[in-house]
Design goal:
267 residues; 2 domains; 23% helix; globular; 7 helices
């Protein structure tokens, strides 16, 4: 699989508010609330950790949300470019370097010392992404393999927290371009997000993300690919992969809607 983020590095900070960059909260509102019920010290894996913002939040106990954590936080991601940034950021907060590893979702099943280790696995804003070589016809097989990998690292009674984009809401809004701008360490980071939607909701969709740091002059462009599936279709895929849907609810903002699921492996 191709690493769509290979040239992004720290420019990904454009997508993070200062609060999220500090690790004050997770990026998904439902996950923030649901984590309040997880005992401090539990082993938690962010299986798409990116630059490490949610790993930091787990390590710190999501302090902006309420009395929770801190947890025994780990992270994995397919992008080595983003992991390099994550390792630097999390090490500065005292997280051991070996807590972060490069892995696809499916390849988690092959990490021996992580097998059945985690009380909770997070996979936020990622499972609807289609890596290079995956399209609308092969996405379901890719998702099955991904879910198998995440199930393999969950312990008895563990939970998988994941989300999908609300594709009908995105279509209803006409997939408008989005500009996100955030300031970190005195520098201004900016990202413009432009869609190229597929012919139907279930088609392959693409989005071009143009990143820049206004102060340093750094720039990078990444094209991400997605496959649309309804909440009911995804719930069926979860059950087929051996999960029970415990909870689901809409999350996000009015202009950027998601649906978040809490899943439990079925013995």
């Amino acid at each position: 699989m191709d690493d769509a983020y290979r040239d992004i590095g720290r420019l990904y900070l454009a997508l993070l508010s200062p609060e999220r960059e500090r690790g004050d909260r997770l990026g998904d509102g439902a996950m923030n609330r649901w984590m309040l019920d997880v005992p401090p010290g539990a082993a938690i894996l962010d299986a798409c950790c990116g630059v490490g913002n949610d790993v930091l939040a787990l390590h710190r106990g999501i302090p902006a949300v309420g009395k929770a954590g801190p947890w025994n936080a780990f992270g994995s991601d397919f992008s080595e470019s983003l992991l390099r940034v994550a390792r630097t950021r999390t090490a500065a907060r005292g997280l051991p370097a070996d807590r972060l590893r490069r892995s696809s979702f499916a390849d988690l099943a092959g990490i021996g010392d992580w097998r059945h280790r985690f009380d909770v696995v997070l996979a936020a804003h990622a499972i609807y992404t289609a890596p290079d070589g995956i399209d609308e016809g092969t996405y379901d097989d890719y998702l099955r393999a991904s879910l198998h990998g995440m199930k393999a690292v969950l312990g008895t009674g563990g939970r998988l927290l994941t989300n999908i984009r609300d594709w009908p809401a995105a279509e209803a809004r006409g997939y408008p371009p989005t500009v996100v701008e955030n300031r970190h360490g005195g520098e201004v980071f900016r990202c413009r997000y432009e869609w190229r939607p597929g012919k139907t909701l279930r088609s392959l969709h693409a989005a071009t993300l143009a990143f820049e740091c206004r102060d340093s002059g750094e720039r990078a462009v990444s094209t991400l690919r997605f496959v649309g599936r309804s909440a009911d279709e995804m719930a069926g895929m979860f059950r087929e992969a051996g999960f029970r849907v415990i909870r689901s609810e809409p999350t996000g903002t009015e202009g950027d809607r998601f649906i978040t699921f809490m899943l439990q492996p079925v013995s």
